[in-house]
Design a protein that fits this description.
Layout: H1 10-13, H2 18-25, H3 29-68, H4 80-88, H5 91-112, H6 118-162, E1 174-181, E2 192-199, E3 202-210, H7 214-234, H8 238-252, E4 259-267, E5 280-286, E6 292-294, E7 300-302, E8 325-328, E9 334-338, H9 340-343, H10 367-382, E10 390-397, H11 400-406
Antiparallel strand pairs: 1-10, 2-3, 3-4, 4-5, 5-8, 6-7, 6-9, 9-10
Helix pairs in contact: 3-4, 3-5, 4-5, 4-6, 5-6, 7-8
Length: 407
């Protein structure tokens, strides 16, 4: 098989400075957890500030009115207290803010000798009305927050079922790492899918991309993953797995929907004491971007299939079955599977993400940290939320010496 990439110098594939190493480390799991902690602390401080704001505003208005006298007419501004309280406070605190505002209005009216004047009466009526409206608004906000929390808990449970954590190892000496970035705000899953299962027929892998976005794409991804998890154990050949996926999608899909996918099987696995030569990956490409191979000698190339099949869900258009092909997978090699959300990610000037040029980021000792570094670089390249889901799955065939030490 011809290798489509050029050879790269190892010296260029490594970070050139401590700054580059620091940038690469920004994508690590620990770093992202620390950033999430800082974000949560900032959000907590913001909530505390919003809860104190109504009382601070009422105190400032009362002090200014106390010092300036009745001519300034600041009493109506006391209604800002319960109004601000409805934004972040509960029912009790919002009610207390309204009571305090009304009490301050009465006290300042007595002090300025304008208590039962029309202007003061209208101000007290306004404060009372704003307080009632604020309490109702606060009750509605709390109800929606509880509903949103329930929906999020159900969504998180569904996410854990749909995209289960993959094993860190897929057999002796084979490391696995996964990265997923959803284009939907505050979601961890979307139309992209992946799975790694160990079966009697070997380790089998799927990485796919459902046409479209939103809940419909998630539903289709669930159908594909459910069918794959079952067929991967039952079917002796990878072509049989593809057929099972086609049958499942034929029952579920409608219209012109389809799923691009790449199915792989690691063959000739070694035992626990020695990594055998000649290990390879059998691949069936159903209209999906070709995986990138990073050979131990530094060569990088895309494993384009000699006969690419149509995407899943287009069985009526297929003239023949999908034909598998082999990817060499020797000790020290890596294979990166990904979806088009990675290679089609654009920066502010419209340039696509240069995946092959950034492959040196995968040279770290830990596959997951290396893939996290690549994901962080992808997000820096785009500089904003991704326009499409981006999934990556990295397979690393560790060298015999490192595998023996890990054992």
């Amino acid at each position: 098989m011809a290798r489509g990439g050029d050879r790269h110098d190892h010296s260029q594939a490594r970070p050139k400075s401590r700054l580059d190493a620091l940038k690469a480390s920004l994508g690590s799991t620990k770093t992202r957890a620390f950033l999430r902690l800082l974000t949560s602390i900032g959000a907590t401080r913001t909530q505390d500030t919003l809860r104190l704001l109504p009382f601070v505003v009422m105190a400032v208005v009362a002090l200014i009115d106390f010092g300036s006298g009745p001519t300034f007419g600041l009493l109506p501004l006391l209604a800002l207290g319960p109004a601000f309280a409805s934004v972040a406070c509960g029912l009790a605190r919002t009610t207390v803010a309204g009571v305090i505002a009304l009490a301050l209005c009465v006290a300042l009216g007595l002090y300025n000798d304008i208590l039962w004047t029309p202007r003061t009466n209208i101000t007290m009526a306004a404060i009372l009305g704003v307080t009632v409206a604020s309490v109702l608004a606060s009750a509605g906000r709390l109800r929606h927050e509880r509903q949103l929390a329930d929906v999020r808990s159900v969504a998180e449970a569904a996410q854990r079922v749909l995209l289960r954590p993959v094993p860190r190892r897929a057999g002796p000496g084979i490391g696995v790492a996964v990265s997923y970035t959803s284009a939907t705000a505050e979601a961890r899953i979307g139309g992209d899918l992946y799975e790694v299962v160990t079966t009697p027929h070997g380790v089998r892998i799927i990485v796919g991309d459902v046409q479209g976005k939103g809940l419909e794409a998630v539903e289709t991804a669930a159908v594909v993953l459910g069918a794959f998890r079952e067929a991967a154990h039952d079917e002796a050949k990878l072509q049989g797995v593809v057929t099972r996926l086609e049958n499942a999608l034929t029952r579920e899909l409608s219209g012109e929907q389809f799923v691009t996918a790449i199915l792989a099987e690691i063959t000739e696995m070694a035992d626990n004491t020695e990594i055998g030569e000649g290990t390879s990956i059998t691949v069936i490409n159903c209209g999906h971007p070709a995986p990138m191979v990073l050979a131990a000698d530094g060569e990088r190339w895309f494993a384009d299939p000699p006969d690419e099949a149509l995407p899943l869900g287009m069985v009526s258009l297929k003239a023949s079955e999908a034909v598998p092909h082999q990817i060499p997978f020797e000790p020290g090699d890596q294979v990166l599977f990904y979806t088009d959300g990675v290679i089609e990610a654009r920066n502010g000037t419209g340039q696509f993400y240069p995946l092959q040029a950034r492959a040196h980021l995968l040279g770290g000792t830990d596959p997951q940290l290396a893939l996290d570094a690549l994901r962080a670089d992808l997000l820096r390249h785009v500089g904003r939320p991704l326009g499409d889901d981006a999934a990556m799955l990295l397979l690393r065939h560790r060298a015999a010496s490192s595998a023996a030490s890990a054992a």
